[in-house]
Amino acid sequence: MSTRARIDFPSRVGVWWSGDTWAMPAAQQVARDIEEMGYGSLFLPETVAKECLTQSAAYLSATERLVIGTGIANIHVRLPSAAEAGARTLTALHPGRFVLGLGVSHGPLVERGMGGVYTKPLTTMRDYLDRMAAVPEAIEPGVGRPPRLLAALGPKMIELSGAHADGAHPYLVTPEHTRFTRDILGPDKWIVSEQAVSLDPDEAARMAAAHGHLEFYSGLPNYRNSWLRQGFEESDLVRGGSDRLARALVGMGGVERAAAALVAHLDAGADHVVVQVVDGGMGADPRPALRELAGALGL
């Protein structure tokens, strides 16, 4: 009998999108449109801009079936008790529709952008999860522990996501890495993989969008180490990534090939895959591309 946490995804393909620069009423309309297209989720980031639990509440209230997930809630932003209590409240109001994705973030963001201290990511995350688990049941009684996923790239963090959480939310990984994650976690833990795509009809523009997407991440040690573990080389880790890295991490070359990149993660063991449209940069309107993809995916 499966012991996995409850997440009621209406379909196996969702969306990863940042609405940080959007007024919330307009962002809520994007969420409604995503739901109407047949996508099963909307995952949102948290860096140094909008607070993700507040945004999640707004998206949940604006939709009826769409699962809302944090991809990820930065553990350096709030106390463990606040993260747990906030997630319980959202789960109490919208059962089966909220996923708390948690991550240790990155040293440069935490120390330079937030003035915090970044050290021993695995120990820090384990302690954070233990302190979340210590929140008494009297807080939102009857709700239980909300489903939580970890931003897990390396084997030790993946193992922790199975032992102390409900699975993993891999980001900027190949389908082979999704399969690697499934091998570690076994069948009863959730895997929600992210996949970037570009649907620009011009090849040069697609590559420019892919490199632009990787520009920020290619300067972060966590991702650089992850890509080396995935079989890439130092020569692939130039700022913006090599063409080889861009083609491996961004689905492009037409809507059918982009859709195939998403399905590859499902075939590799993901329960759910979230698509990030990189055309126009983070925060651009994803809906035109999502409508094309929805047709190709049969949503």
Using the coordinates shown, work out and report the CATH topology: TIM Barrel
What is the count of structural domains?
A: 1
- Per CATH, the class reads Alpha Beta
Could you spell the SSE succession in H and E letters? Answer: EHEHEEHEHHEHEHEHHHEHEH
> Spans with pLDDT under 50 lasting ≥5 residues?
none
Q: Return the structural class.
A: alpha/beta
Portion in helices: 40-55%
| Main beta-sheet annotation | 10 strands, parallel
Can you identify the CATH superfamily? Luciferase-like domain
- Dominant shape: globular
Spatial extent as radius of gyration = 18 Å
End-to-end separation = 29 Å
Mean pLDDT: 95
Number of β-strand runs: 10
Content of β-strand:
5-15%
Q: What's the CATH architecture? A: Alpha-Beta Barrel
Please report the number of helical segments.
12
Pfam family, one: Bac_luciferase
GO molecular function, one term: oxidoreductase activity, acting on paired donors, with incorporation or reduction of molecular oxygen
Domain Luciferase-like: 25-235
Organism: Mycolicibacterium brumae
